[in-house]
Amino acid sequence: MKKTPFVTLAQLRAIQERYPTPFHLYDEAGIRRTARSLHKAFDWNPGFREYFAVKATPTPAILKLLKQEGCGVDCSSLTELMMAERCGFSGRQIMFSANETPAEEYLLAARLGATINLDDFTHIDFLRQTIGYIPRRISCRYNPGGTFRLGRSKEGFQVMGNPGQSKYGFTRDQLFEGFRKLKGMGAEEFGLHAFLASNTVSNEYYPALARELFTLAVQLQTETGCRISFINLSGGVGVDYRPEEPANDIAQIGQGVRQAYEEVLVPAGMGDVDIFTELGRFMLAPNGHLVTTAIHEKHTYKEYIGVDACAANLMRPAMYGAYHHITVSGKEEAPCDHMYDVVGALCENNDKFAIDRMLPEIEKGDLLVIHDTGAHGFSMGYNYNGRLRSAELLLREDGSVEQIRRAETPEDYFATLVW
Ligand SMILES: *Cc1c(COP(=O)(O)O)cnc(C)c1O
What we know:
This protein is an alpha/beta fold. It has helices at 9-18, 28-41, 60-68, 78-86, 103-112, 122-131, 172-184, 205-224, 250-265, 281-284, 316-320, 410-414, and strands at residues 23-27, 49-53, 72-75, 94-97, 115-118, 137-141, 148-153, 156-161, 189-193, 227-232, 274-277, 288-299, 303-307, 326-328, 338-343, 352-359, 367-370, 391-395, 401-405.
């Protein structure tokens, strides 16, 4: 679908007077709309909850907004747990899914009453040694190995992910043994979790994953006698970063999961299982823009536009060669008849937001909107080349703009140094 920014040039010029570029801008209306569409898609499951993956956008104003929409949080580190606590999340509103987990993180997760999702069989003993007991409610992460494929189509199987090469989760046998062991140590309510493919643009991923987990859950409950109270489909529902890609239809995805639920869990007498998700990208990516100013043009073997943002503000293109759509604010309808590399200032030749991209003619001072940066954007930032993290701003539903994180200053960068 054609990508249009959620702000106009006039709005951006006004924002720019108070907050210099580059900055990340989030759209409150869009975030609320996305959360509501997800909840509507799963309203057939009374215990449904989205645990927003904090690592995607670890900013308190965003977490509080999602809390108002009924979401919990999925944390994966000590500081994410601390942030969740300070934002007012507690108990069952927090999922803790980490791996190679340090002891102090389990201690804090247990103190907050978070639901702990174990990544490995050996963590059963590690958790008990660390916190002194096994919580009554506990979850385990499953890794089926091999490749994760979607059903047969004319083209054959579509490979979605490669769990056999991923470091996460219990094997199938370890899961049966682990559930029995946890039950023997006092656990009474069990959860099953799996994350088998990232950024899927297919309405079939969640339903296929759900069917596999539901089938396994029935076997686990039958063979081990452990009561399964929730199944966590985790993250992985993606977004259409490219305008020509089809967008996911969350209503259809919800119906696909419902069908698997009614065909597998309900007949097994497990119609009371709660469905959880831990979406990050789907919730936030389209609801964020990285806004940057064109500050240089360079004509050598190629045409370059130098901008004031760099890979330290958005790492995905440099790290994965990821596509992010770019529009030039105020020139949304202009013909894309110029080919540019849009580049940042890092001393790394992969610091390119776009390569050979057809765009309208860009003049110095133009504002470029880099789309779909609301998740895994700011949060993956780093300080290479002494580059500083930008501000984060929230466009409120009433059109006002709030700074929800200030930009780093040189003092911040120097704060940890010993001279
Ligand atoms: C990263 C992560 C997510 C979120 O993934 P998205 O692709 O942003 O939806 C969810 N759960 C876990 C355990 C993760 O590590």
